[in-house]
Amino acid sequence: MTQPIVTPLTQALAEGKLTREELKSFMQRSDAPALRRLVLWVLVLIATTSLVTLAWDSWLIWPAMFIHGVVLVHHFSLQHECVHYTVFRTRWLNDLVGQICGLILILPHRFFRYEHCDHHTYTQIEGNDPELVPLPKSLGAYLLYLSALPYWRSKFTEVARHAMGNLNAVERRFIPKEAQRHVFWDARMMLGVYAIFFLGMAVTGWWGLIWYWLIPLFLGEPVMRFIRMTEHVGRPTVAQMSENTRTNIVSKPWQFLCWNMNYHAEHHYVASVPYHALPRLHEKLKDHIHVEKGGYLAAHREILRQVMAQA
User: Fold this and answer.
1) What are phi and psi of 167, to 5 degrees?
2) What is the pLDDT of residue 1?
């Protein structure tokens, strides 16, 4: 007789640390928490945008753009939650906010949804997980990844290919045939919007979007690469989620910026739990998952230890 699969979730249920009623309550979605959080999010954006404006005529504009960029790149966390339809209970709000985030990040929302679905299905399985980031083979490779140069090369190539109606072999695997034309048109429309932006700047002579959006985005992306590495890199490339995914204990400001995605193992176990319920789910599962109590820095120390051990 086949033995039931034991997971942190089933362990917590069996031990009485989590009841099915609690789990059901964690999965309840609501518009209110995200709308309140979005008000704070917009205020933070106004503050960092103001920093850039105040520093306009001095060298301080570069650290100001970096700080602003760190906030901009964290729209990825919000878009990620919208992909799962867990930010809002109202479905179209997830789509709308996700599309806006994708426009900010140069990451078409529909394509990301299909790609991320396969990531959850095949987490850390080499050759199947389209988002898998392998352990760097050297310190140079580690630093190159953190520079975000390979990321931007991949993203620009990806959007250009899709706009021309081309998918690579990996993309054809996870994008259904009936959705491929929508992915192509999403990329074309995104490039069309950018073309309108740049045409408008050329006509008016105001190039502010470069300083308030593009340069900060490029300055901030290495921070997002630094964070994304801590989710799975250096963990075993196996299907068992208690092994292949890291939860990082970070400060409240980082939790705010990343929409609680530092509770990454919990998210992978119950992806239908909204971001605001993940801290409560963590309390139920923390004894059964891999938790990095030292946060992002400690996770990178472990990653670097493994990188240097290969030398």
Assistant:
1) -120, 145
2) 43
